[in-house]
User: Fold this.
Amino acid sequence: MTSGTTPGLARFNTSAEGDALAALHEVCTSSAWASKLLAQRPYATVEALFQASDAAMAELTAEDLAEAMAGHPPIGRPKEGDPTSSREQSGMAGASAELKAEMLELNLAYQDTFGHVFLICATGRTGEQMRDALRERIGNSPEQEREIVRTELGKINRIRLNRLAETPEEENR
Assistant:
């Protein structure tokens, strides 16, 4: 990850407010998070953007976290036509039918327990690793799980923000 100013970061810093807000919404669907990042533009470095994201994530309420989680599909079922969702969940792409069925069952049990999708930074994880994490986390208290979700969202946001800051304009369309 680059820590300096990049063409993508410069574009984000100088884009119209509505365009910048739309780009942030692609990263995270929390309105509070996006508003905080938007208000702090321009960013001198990608690292400064990451720090602002981390600080905004730490301040999110339970309602803000729920709004952010609503933008994430269940593991094993990426949003159709969404390259970001498919890329991030690529560890499930070659999973066996048995693993996919088990993930569906575990996802539903998790949702029944916590009232929201199981959220994990899936980038670089295999289907088995995600399943094992789900099995482990389903026994958490709601408070423990909320803080784990906050951490996982922060990781996802950093990956997506890095992509936003690094992507040349022609690829961003």
About this structure: Residues 13 and 41 are 6 Å apart (CA to CA). The chain has a mean pLDDT of 89. Residues 142-166 form the longest helix (25 residues). The radius of gyration is 16 Å.
